[in-house]
Write a structure and sequence with these properties.
Blueprint: E1 10-18, E2 24-27, E3 33-36, E4 44-52, E5 56-66, H1 92-109, E6 120-122, E7 133-140, E8 146-152, E9 155-161, H2 171-183, E10 196-203, E11 209-214, H3 222-228, E12 232-238, E13 246-250, E14 254-258, E15 261-265, H4 275-289, E16 295-299, H5 305-312, E17 316-321, H6 324-331, E18 338-342, H7 345-352, E19 357-360, H8 369-377, E20 382-387, H9 390-400, E21 404-412, E22 422-429
Helix pairs in contact: 1-9, 4-5, 7-8
């Protein structure tokens, strides 16, 4: 195919916004919407079309003709190719505005909600070096060559080989990653065998690191890794992502400080990756809840932070969580007024209603229709919904519908340099 309608041809495009994946959005000369990474609203750019569908197209940035004043040279040496970050070419204040617009647009377009203006976004205290957990992909290539890092932007079949120079991990995690790369030996022989592995490193507040290897087979030489990698305290392995990991070497758990609590950090990690920003979000949710003498259900409760704190403030609290390790941590030292149930929220929530307050903090896929049905059948006085995906949040708010109304809306940036954003919505019910 040739001409403006085909791929491979260049065009000049004005960028009007940022899409959910972090790409800039504009229109080709024939009016077709086009997504272009590494661009920003207000820019005129030259692009080369790489993919064309009936209703949209993708394109590669060729040249910036007119740049926004908010554009910057990306600080990370890997940004040109890496898909781990998508907004690093923008000043941080511009990133926050883009995320606010993403949330408002999703609520309007998907949820059909009347959002007069974009919500406020609380910035992360740390723009870089904020992640306490990072997962890298490792591939063994011909000739004993190993590449390990994040997937390449728009080419997920390729891996960008990177060391601790990546600017996302906390300093202790970055040092451990560089140390692991130096210690795993020729062909990464000290790791379990296999063409592809997923390596997840998690650092405690004290800088102690746990490594989980997913994929492959065998034990490698985990003891040698513990001896040679500074800060590494444990190596776990699971042949597949769904199976329970087994400890190859090191300690069963590492002590993690989360606020005022000490948690056991072991084979799985179930706390937020940006500890400083997460504390701001948690404080906001607790402030919305307030002191109470009523009943609160903390659904998808994780380690039970909300249920435990609200129980101390006078609430009768119950937390529901599928992850049994997280439930174990939630129960450890919990106040008498906090109870925790291990299981699926869709199954257990109807049994725990009615309630004065329900906190929803679901995974990216949002809540199950059965959860919506339960909340509509026995509506609580208030719902506080903590969302990590504006699209599923908008869908769920639309499904909840009447009699719920938005009381407040606020966002938190737990993932600087990416298009991800956390949103907290307070809903009130007029009929309870």
């Amino acid at each position: 195919m040739s001409g403006a309608a085909g791929t491979g041809r260049e065009a000049v495009v004005s960028i009007d916004g940022i899409a959910a994946g972090g790409a800039g959005v504009g229109r080709l000369p024939d009016g077709l919407a086009v997504f272009v990474h590494r661009t920003a609203p207000g820019e005129r750019v030259r692009v080369a079309v790489t993919e064309r569908k009936r209703r949209w197209a993708r394109a590669r940035l060729v040249d910036v003709i007119e740049a926004t004043p908010e554009r910057r040279d990306a600080p990370c040496p890997y940004y040109a190719r890496c898909g781990g970050c998508t907004l690093e070419h923008l000043d941080y204040s511009a990133q926050l505005r883009a995320k606010a617009s993403l949330v408002a647009e999703a609520l309007r377009r998907i949820g059909g909600l009347d959002i007069a203006e974009p919500p406020a976004v609380t910035a992360s205290p740390d723009e870089f070096r904020y992640r306490n957990r990072v997962s890298f992909a490792l591939r063994r290539l011909r000739g004993g060559r190993v590449v390990a890092g994040f997937h390449e932007l728009e080419r997920p079949d390729r891996i960008v080989d990177m060391d601790g120079g990546c600017l996302l991990p906390e300093p202790a995690l970055a040092r451990a990653w560089s140390g692991l790369r130096a210690a795993w030996g020729a062909g990464a022989a000290r790791l379990p065998a296999g063409a592809s592995l997923r390596l997840t490193l998690r650092a405690s507040a004290a800088g102690e690191v746990v490594l989980l290897v997913e994929g492959g087979r065998g034990d490698g030489d985990a003891e040698a890794l513990l001896r040679e990698v500074h800060g590494l305290r444990a190596v776990w392995h699971a042949e597949s992502a769904g199976e329970a990991p087994r400890l190859l070497a090191g300690v069963e758990t590492v002590a993690e400080r989360w606020g005022e609590r000490m948690l056991p950090l072991g084979r799985r990690a179930f706390v937020q990756v940006n500890r400083a920003a997460a504390r701001l979000l948690e404080a906001h949710v607790l402030a919305l809840a307030g002191r109470g003498a009523g009943r609160v259900v903390d659904a998808y409760c994780g380690i039970g932070e909300y249920a435990r704190e609200l129980a101390r403030d006078g609430w009768q609290a119950v937390g529901i969580e599928l992850d049994e390790d997280a439930v174990f941590a939630a129960r450890d030292g919990a106040p008498d007024q906090a109870r925790f149930v291990a299981g699926d929220v869709a199954e257990h929530l109807p049994r725990e209603l009615p309630a004065d307050l329900v906190i929803l903090n679901p995974p990216r896929g949002g809540v199950d229709q059965a959860v919506v049905d339960a909340l509509r059948a026995r509506p609580p006085r208030r719902i506080v919904y903590v969302s990590c995906d504006p699209a599923t949040l908008a869908r769920d708010l639309s499904r909840l519908g009447d009699p719920f109304r938005i009381g407040s809306l606020h966002c938190f940036d737990l993932f600087p340099q990416t298009a991800h954003v956390e949103t907290v919505v307070e809903l009130t019910c007029a009929i309870t």
